[in-house]
Amino acid sequence: MKKPTLNPVFLKELRQLVRSRVVGWGLLVYPIVLFIATALCVAAERGHGSRLEFDLGSGHGIPPCIATGIILGIAICVLLPVYAAIKTTLETVNNRMGLEFITNLTPSEIISGKMYAAGLLMVVATAVSLPFFRLAYLLRGVMLSVVLAVPIALIFLGLATLALGMLVACQRRAVALRIVEI
Which of 3, 2, 4, 8 is nearest to 98 (CA)? Predict the structure, then answer.
């Protein structure tokens, strides 16, 4: 039986994610976008009622929950898979082959390491959006099961789009692997 070890490509990708300016700026801007969208939704809901009171008995949490869900869906179902696919594709452009091409790692280990790192980034983005889902729940009108199910469903949908994005990105990578084998 094989001794369980961490995927070296996963560790390399995590190191690159930590050092990446795109990820750093994304993690700074993402909560600000969520805050602005939630604040606008709450302000719009407050504008429909009386100016002096804000009734918490009605469903004021539905618009912030929808806005947070849409922003989270765009982030983890579109932006992160595209980022991972572009990053994977650019590794083989101009014959800049990494060390994983000359080691004894299988192609599935290389791709799974890249997908693990992107999946972890999806979990981080979801964790950043959870306080905004909780605010929507506290404003009432949204059931707890919805607040829990939407992020989980979006993570699974994001993983599916990530797999599709990596499939597209690996078409160029397959050509590079054939060159290495020759």
Answer: 8
Contact yes or no for 162/122 (Cβ under 8 A): yes
Provide the terminal-to-terminal Cα distance of the chain, rounded to the nearest Å: 31
Closest by Cα among 46, 50, 74, 77 to 60: 46
Identity (one letter) of the amino acid at 20? S
| pTM, to two decimals | 0.81
What share of the chain in percent tops pLDDT 70? 79
H runs (alpha helix) in 20-143: 21-48, 62-74, 80-90, 107-138
- d(CA 100, CA 13) in angstroms, rounded, equals 12
Give residue 129's pLDDT.
Answer: 95
Contact by Cβ (8 Å): 84, 165: yes
